[in-house]
Each structure stands twice: as structure tokens, then as C-alpha cells.
Write a structure and sequence with these properties.
The chain has 105 residues and is mainly α. It has three helices and two strands, in the order αββαα. It has helices at 8-24, 45-76, 81-104; strands at residues 30-33, 37-40. The protein has a two-stranded antiparallel ribbon with strand order 1-2. The radius of gyration is 18 Å and the shape is elongated. The two termini are 35 Å apart.
Length: 105
């Protein structure tokens, strides 16, 4: 951001575009770590480690959403179509992430 004098938003958009290009052109994935910042993954272990962290973070977010927001919503309005639909969808995603996490452990 500092070297290019870009805003935080512009930097995020540029990094997202670069990640898309990596996928389209079959380049190594662009990942971020605390130790090295943004870089192209050079080994098979790097993106796998990043993916494990990502899955863990998403599982935590889904669990908190279910227990902190969705469960109270369903308790107050058990016939809400939206809440029941969302509950079904989020639990399906959560189950998929849990399965992926168990495969990588």
C-alpha cells in the first residue's frame, strides 16, 4: 500500500484480481503468512497450511453465527422461513468444512 500509494480498498481489489489471475493462468497460488507476507506458494505444504488455517477460521465463524445469532433467532421465531432456510444452509456448509478439516488433520 505504502510503496504504491494505494488505499486499503484498492490494495484488496488488486490482490483479489491477482488471485483470480493465478487461478486462470494456473500460476502458483498467492498466499499470505505472518512470516513472509504475500508471496507465491513455492511448495505443496504452503497452500495446504494456509487452507487449514482458513478452514479453521471459517468453522469458528460459522459456529459463532449459529450459536450467537441464528439459534436465538430460531428460538424467538421458530416458524421463520428465512431462519430455518439459513440454518439448513449454514449447517450444510459447516458439515462440509468439518469434513475437510478432518481430512487435513
Amino acid at each position: 500500500m505504502g510503496a504504491c500509494e494505494l488505499s486499503q480498498h484498492q490494495t484488496r481489489i488488486g490482490l483479489a484480481a491477482l488471485r483470480d489471475m493465478c487461478g486462470e493462468r494456473e500460476w502458483p497460488p498467492l498466499i499470505w503468512t505472518r512470516e513472509t507476507g504475500y508471496h507465491f506458494a513455492v511448495s505443496e505444504q504452503e497452500p495446504e497450511a494456509w487452507e487449514r488455517v482458513w478452514i479453521s477460521e471459517k468453522l469458528t465463524q460459522f459456529r459463532r453465527m449459529i450459536t450467537g445469532t441464528l439459534a436465538p433467532h430460531l428460538a424467538l421465531y421458530p416458524t421463520s422461513r428465512w431462519a430455518n432456510y439459513l440454518n439448513t444452509q449454514i449447517r450444510a456448509v459447516k458439515a462440509s468444512l468439518e469434513m475437510a478439516a478432518s481430512q487435513t488433520s
